[in-house]
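Fold it.
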Amino acid sequence: MVVPERVVLHPLVLLSVVDHYNRVARDSRKRVVGVLLGDVRKGVVDITNSFAVPFEEDAKDPSIWFLDHSYLENIFRMFKKVNARERVVGWYSTGPRIREADLDINELITRFCDDPVLVICEVQPKELGLPITAYYSKEEVKEDGTEKSKRVFVNVPTEVGQTEAEEIGVEHLLRDVKDATVSTLATEVSAKVQGVRGLSSRLAEIRQYLDLVLNGKMPVNHEIMKQLQDIFSLLPNMNLVTLANSLAVKANDMMLAVYVSSLIRCVIALHNLIDNKEMRLENKRSHIKPSPEKVAPAAKESKEEAKGETTEKKK
């Protein structure tokens, strides 16, 4: 058995999963299931494509489910004609968590590949970060031999990868999705806020893990400790006076630019308000009707001119 070290998911797969969910199970508590296609090289599972599979399960009894494997075989045969390099590497589910029947479904997928991976895609994520988690199944045996061996899911590091063509397509897609009414500054600020929130959640997870290790509830993982030490070593020394002064100067410069731009916006808004008021006054003056006293003499003069023209014609 080849243990996968890392799972790389391409953007096309994520778009296909979301489209499958919106077509089949939108506004419901159902989940959708499909097959993942790609390649495995040196322990890295590269998932480049996917397709949906008809799937049903009983909401009351999770052990009752149906997956159309004959449909799976026919669709995979057609995909094989288009791209012979792609093969079945696993299956996906919209979860949002592992369910009881997933081990049985994973056992069915082993008919098409030796070591399938399960990728759970959360189409409605509640937390910041990648909405995907990957697992592979392995046989677990108790050291004391009190229980029989059983298969369990083990987490695999997951990341999103893309080719150059996919990167260009994703950029164009984001341009179409981007709201044109939102200013660039507001977009950048919201992105910074989301980034800070994500960092805060990761720091909370690190603290929770360290507390569990200190209390003896979890064993020490030296690999995690090494990565944490590397993170702490990369942190800048904020006690240096020169670094603190340079950061303060940069922050003041940025705040000055924001203050000046706010003043300019206020001046422009006041100028536009004054121009608008002047235009309204001019429009009112141009549409004011002349008084009846001025209209009457003009009417008399026009009548007298008309009478003079008629007498000249008679002569």
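The longest strand covers residues 44-53.
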